[in-house]
Design brief:
single chain; Nucleotidyltransferase, domain 5; 2 domains; disordered C terminus; alpha/beta; five-stranded mixed sheet; six-stranded mixed sheet
Length: 318
């Protein structure tokens, strides 16, 4: 009998990538077998978002160089997870996917690659690895939602109607509606994403909420360390604005559920955003009070998108 492939999930982010073997334990619960990580250290400076949106197919030479090097590093990361040469691999990616779903067309925090799936497949094959199924890409917001709903320890387990707000270098949102996983652009009616919602000063709601962008603003203003550890007025202003931004995202999703006569049962704050709020229980409680009845959970499942990249809705929670 042919050996079963190892299932490996990958999560690509603005600051690095993570990968792990995803499997079920004896109780049928979905678990990660260790989390392998890398940080991007190529000093890549992303093309301004407006330019990407205006010329989505025109990739710069620096993007080509950086993306090629990152594909090679991703192949090394995946190979380092595997005990077998036969693997099944799913990848969670940020930004806007290409029409065929096999590449990244727009990415605010990194180099675009319209042929990401095929390039990564070739890089793995060059290492002697075989893919048992076609390598698949999934938007990272939906992958985080799947992981929080389906994995052991996920913050949305048992929920039929919920919201996942995943924050790191950027912000991604996705909803579970009657057990279906949907990105904001898949809703009826669709909702604008955080990076598409701008205030009068030209900043976006993503700028207000994403931990990576808050840290960048803090450091550019001369702040040392992290605003969460500072306690001063300027740091508090940034964190209060983050709270207000999260509340705005939740209220918008709740209004969408209300319009369909559905209850928003729970909101999972995932990834770095979840870790930061898990260390600030007072802020989380005050936000819940302002939201009047919506349950906020700060997730500690760092590998949620890794799990969600390989698990499909039909697999079901466990």
């Amino acid at each position: 009998m042919d050996p079963a492939p190892q299932v490996i999930g990958v999560d690509i982010g603005g600051s690095g990538a993570r990968a792990a073997v995803v499997e079920r334990d004896e109780g049928g619960r979905v678990r990660l077998e260790g989390l392998h990580e890398l940080s991007w250290d190529d000093g890549f400076d992303p093309v301004p978002l407006k330019e990407q949106l205006a010329y989505p197919g025109e990739v710069t030479a620096s993007e080509e160089v950086s993306a090629s090097a990152r594909v090679a590093r991703l192949a090394d990361l995946i190979a380092g997870c595997a005990d077998s040469r036969l693997v099944s691999c799913g990848v969670a990616v940020p930004g806007l996917l290409t029409e065929d779903g096999l590449g990244v067309l727009v990415w605010r925090n990194g180099p675009r690659r319209s042929t990401l799936a095929s390039d990564l497949k070739r890089a793995l094959e060059a290492k002697g690895m075989t893919l048992s199924t076609p390598l698949s890409l999934c938007h990272d917001s939906v992958a985080a939602l799947r992981g929080e709903h389906m994995a052991h320890g996920g913050a949305l387990r048992g929920v039929s109607n919920g919201l996942c707000i995943a924050g790191g270098s950027g912000v991604g949102e996705a909803l579970i509606v009657g057990g279906r996983y949907l990105g904001l652009n898949e809703l009826d009616p669709p909702l604008a994403r955080a990076w598409e919602l701008f205030s009068g000063d030209g900043s976006s709601l993503e700028d207000q909420v994403a931990p990576g962008r808050i840290l960048g603003e803090w450091r550019s203003a001369g702040g040392a360390g992290y605003p969460e550890a500072d306690g001063g007025a300027e740091a508090s202003a940034l964190l209060d604005a983050r709270d207000a931004g999260v509340i705005a995202l939740v209220e918008r999703a709740r209004a969408w559920f209300d319009a369909g006569d559905l209850d928003l049962e729970r909101v999972a704050l995932s990834q770095t955003l979840g870790r930061l709020y898990s260390e600030a229980e007072g802020r989380l409680k005050r936000m819940e009070e302002r939201l009047d009845g919506v349950e906020l959970v700060a997730s500690s499942l760092r590998g949620a998108p890794v799990v969600g990249a390989v698990l499909r809705p039909e697999a079901g929670p466990s």
